[in-house]
Design brief:
Layout: E1 2-5, E2 18-24, E3 29-39, E4 46-50, E5 59-63, E6 71-73, E7 78-84, E8 93-102
Length: 103
């Protein structure tokens, strides 16, 4: 189990960011993400979650605010997370927890 947050969280993140994370768990497991808080400039800044180890894997979530359903589960033992911001207006960003679960 672990946490990932945008730079400076809970303070505002910087403009012009591209930040990536790769989560890999044990063979034969999945990953469950739970978003605790998401507050970005919708349409311009977002958190994108790919179902696999790279940015070319299928997107299973793109968030700019806390969704009604605040958790996502991978289909394998890897998730790639990409956070981007544009050149103006920033927000608090996000914080999430992740944990390994049985496949």
């Amino acid at each position: 189990m672990g946490n990932i947050s945008s730079p400076n969280y809970p303070g505002n993140y910087d403009n012009n960011l591209v930040v990536t994370w790769l989560i890999v768990t044990g063979p034969g497991t999945k990953i469950e993400l739970t978003f605790q808080d998401v507050s970005t400039e919708c349409g311009y800044d977002n958190v994108q979650i790919m179902d696999g180890p790279s940015s070319s894997d299928p997107v299973i979530g793109t968030l700019c605010t806390l969704p009604g359903v605040n958790s996502l589960t991978s289909t394998s033992n890897a998730l790639f997370i990409n956070f981007t911001s544009d050149s103006s207006v920033s927000g608090r960003g996000f914080i999430l927890t992740y944990m390994e679960i049985a496949a």
